[in-house]
Amino acid sequence: MQQEVITKDVFQFLENLKKNNSREWFTEHKSEFKALESGVKSFYTSLMNKLKVHDDIEKLKMFRIYRDVRFSKDKTPYKTHFAGSFSRAGLRLRGGYYLRIKPGETFIATGFWEPNKEDLFRIRKEFETDASEFRSIINKKGFQNIWGQLQGDELKTGPSGFNKEHPNIDLIKKKQFIFVRNFSDKEVLAPDFMTQIDLSFRAIRPYFDLMSEILTTNLNGESLLD
């Protein structure tokens, strides 16, 4: 039977792990972790099945609890959260979904984290030509009530080859195009948490549809996939 809710036990374990982030403690509590992890994975799988009702999801990737500490100053061996991402299927469908579960810091995110050089240039050229449709989508009240403002890293000025005084320079200088929605612990533990995530991801579709169209066509609107 798949788990449809996140339980208080999940939060309690993560809180305890934060206080006792050592291999010795984790080894002693590994059976507890495995049981909770199984339930959380079921939650993510159930969420993926909900997403598949209205989107074409290729795969779910659950991130491991173990931290790679080789190049980090923080040598604690374990993450203190659960996280997973959902990839859309096919070259025509761009963008992705992400969910992190952590006491006091749970959030969902969606959009384009690390567009490759070609995609980033194509997006910037689109905004250089016209960003009115893009702004119309992300500025809608219903959209902003759920997702707020566009987020992501950006250049201090415009990228090379673009007019630094362009009216859309606020978009052109961005390197990421993401939206984030935070959830309180009370909201995470509520019975409708999964439903709220699903409704949020449904609301992002006009944004995904436009960005997918941009990234699969040239500036003349001709398909790059045919």
Question: What's the topology here?
Answer:
Elements: H1 8-19, H2 23-28, H3 30-54, E1 57-62, E2 82-88, E3 96-101, E4 106-112, H4 117-129, H5 132-138, H6 141-147, H7 169-172, E5 177-183, H8 185-189, H9 193-203, H10 205-215
Antiparallel strand pairs: 1-2, 2-3, 3-4, 4-5
Helix pairs in contact: 3-9, 5-10
Report on this structure.
The protein has 226 residues and is α+β, with helices and mostly antiparallel strands. The protein has a single domain, classed as BirA Bifunctional Protein, domain 2 (2-Layer Sandwich). It is built from ten helices and five strands, in the order H-H-H-E-E-E-E-H-H-H-H-E-H-H-H. Strands 1-2-3-4-5 form a five-stranded antiparallel beta sheet. A hairpin with a 7-residue loop joins strand 2 and strand 3. The termini are far apart.
- Strand order in space, largest sheet: 1-2-3-4-5
**Rg to the nearest angstrom?**
20 Å
For the biggest sheet, the summary is: 5 strands, antiparallel
Assign the structural class, choosing from mainly alpha, mainly beta, alpha/beta, alpha+beta, or little secondary structure: alpha+beta
Q: Report the order of strands and helices.
A: HHHEEEEHHHHEHHH
| Intertermini distance | 43 Å
Question: What is the overall number of helices?
Answer: 10
Helical residue percent band: 40-55%
Classify the beta-strand content into a percent band: 5-15%
Label the overall shape.
globular
Pfam family, one: DUF2461
Organism: Arenibacter arenosicollis
Protein name: DUF2461 domain-containing protein
InterPro entries: CHP02453 (IPR012808), UCP028451 (IPR015996)
